[in-house]
Design a protein that fits this description.
single chain; alpha/beta; 2-enoyl-CoA Hydratase, Chain A, domain 1; 2 domains; seven-stranded mixed sheet; three-stranded mixed sheet; elongated
């Protein structure tokens, strides 16, 4: 505030002094001598140059020409105007300086703060640089220590590897010695398990005095009837026919719920085309398609308590109503073609056969023990005793049969039929049937417990 007031007082003083200074200047110029008039006139007239005042004593104003007086007056006016403008400029400059003072102070403050921050940042950067250098030194030292430890461990590993190789060599020698001992004991044990003095019995009529003699011309038939099982059975029927057509071939069924009608029909045709007689032996249970195979065999046998079961064909159908009707109609055609020969052997018609199924059981599952099955002509012979004359050893089944064996030994049940054992998400075991490759095939299978599930 004091600076602003001082600037205003200074400006007013300049404005007050300026007229007085102008009057003094005019007086001095009036007292100065005037140059020669003719020369001035002659100089002014031809070139019309501006009037000038030569240096020297001031010329009195009354001695000046009117033009000079006018010029002097204009000069005085211009000097006053210049003094006024200078005063205004000084005043504006003072105002601008006064207005810029806070800004300059703010700039000074910000500059000081910036310098302080730069100083702090420099100090922090220097501290970080020192820390980085310290960490690099520590990292280098740790790397050197790690390298030393790694080298030490590598040397230790090489030593252990050498010791392990030595132990392996010693163990290999020990294992070889023990293996030789084990093989010797195994051969001695296997020799005790082989019935070297017994031989399979080959009889054209294998039923002798109520005893059925089964030779090594034997085909295991267990589980669901599938394409894989049909291929297994048909291949062996062909093999035994080529080996000899004189003695019977035995299809031995422990338990079979039936299965694919197409696969069962394939087995039936192979049995019918066989030059050697094909006899079916049911020890435990035969149902559905397997019961049809047993009933239509050239000769069949079972125990008194063996169960044979016949019922109508069923199928797992899917699709729209037209497709469902077509599949049901086609399944009925399968049933007519395969069950009609069974009804004919029983001496009744197919509708009467179906009627008796439901007359004997409300579900249509007509089962009978062996002795009753013989009366119904589902089986030919009921026997009390079977001799498996081909069981000549107790040795395990080899994984890869030797080349000199006439026929590979039968694999396990799931390997033959393609049925796999599984457990559902509720922990219940079941058998998964392979997919039916024949689009016109159908399942003819007895499964009241739901153990068999189609893919």
């Amino acid at each position: 505030m004091h600076l602003r007031t001082s600037l205003r007082v200074l400006a007013l003083a300049v404005l007050t002094v300026a007229p007085v200074f102008a009057q003094q200047t005019k007086a001095k110029r009036a007292a100065a001598p005037v140059a020669d008039a003719p020369a001035a006139a002659s100089a002014a007239a031809p070139v019309a140059a501006p009037t000038t005042i030569a240096p020297g004593a001031p010329i009195p104003r009354d001695e000046l020409t009117p033009e000079q007086k006018v010029s002097m007056k204009e000069a005085d006016r211009m000097r006053g105007e210049k003094a006024r403008i200078d005063a205004e400029l000084a005043l504006a400059d003072a105002k601008r300086t006064e207005e810029l003072a806070p800004l300059n102070a703010e700039v000074t403050r910000l500059t000081a703060e910036r310098a302080l921050r730069l100083a702090k940042a420099s100090a922090e950067a220097a501290a970080l640089e020192d820390e980085r250098a310290k960490l690099e030194r520590q990292a280098g030292l740790e790397a050197a220590r790690s390298s030393a430890r790694l080298t030490e461990r590598s040397n230790k590993i090489r030593e252990l590897e050498a010791e392990a190789k030595q132990l392996q060599l010693e163990a290999a020698n020990t294992i070889a010695r023990l293996s030789n001992e084990i093989q010797r004991f195994q051969k001695e044990d296997e020799a005790r398990k082989i019935a070297s003095k017994a031989k399979p019995k080959y009889l054209k009529d294998p039923l002798v005095d109520g005893v059925l003699y089964i030779s090594d011309r034997r085909i295991s038939f267990n589980g669901a009837v599938t394409e894989q099982l049909a291929d297994y059975v048909c291949t062996r029927i062909s093999f035994y026919n080529n080996q000899s057509s004189e003695f019977p071939i035995f299809i031995v069924v422990d338990n079979s719920p039936g299965g694919s009608v197409a696969a069962g029909y394939q087995i039936q045709k192979a049995m019918a085309a066989s030059k050697a007689p094909v006899h079916v032996v049911v020890k435990g249970f035969a149902a559905s398609m397997t019961a049809v195979i047993c009933t239509l065999a050239e000769r069949s046998y079972c125990y008194p308590n063996t169960i044979i079961l016949h019922h109508q064909a069923s199928n797992v159908v899917r699709g729209n109503m037209t497709v469902l009707k077509e599949q049901i109609d086609f399944t009925n055609q399968w049933f007519d073609r395969l069950a009609t020969p069974v009804a004919k052997k029983m001496g009744i018609s197919l509708p009467e056969f179906v009627k008796q199924m439901y007359a004997n059981d409300s579900t249509g599952d007509w089962q009978a023990f062996g002795d009753k099955a013989k009366e119904l002509k589902w089986v030919d012979n009921v026997i009390d005793r079977i001799e498996e004359t081909a069981v000549l050893d107790l040795l395990p089944v080899p994984v890869a049969p030797p080349a000199m064996m006439p026929m590979p030994l039968p694999p396990t049940r799931t390997e033959i039929s393609g049925v796999t054992s599984r457990v559902d998400d509720k922990g219940r075991p079941y058998f998964e049937l392979p997919a039916l490759a024949n689009p016109f095939d159908a399942w003819w299978l007895y499964d009241p417990q739901g153990l068999y599930r189609a893919r």
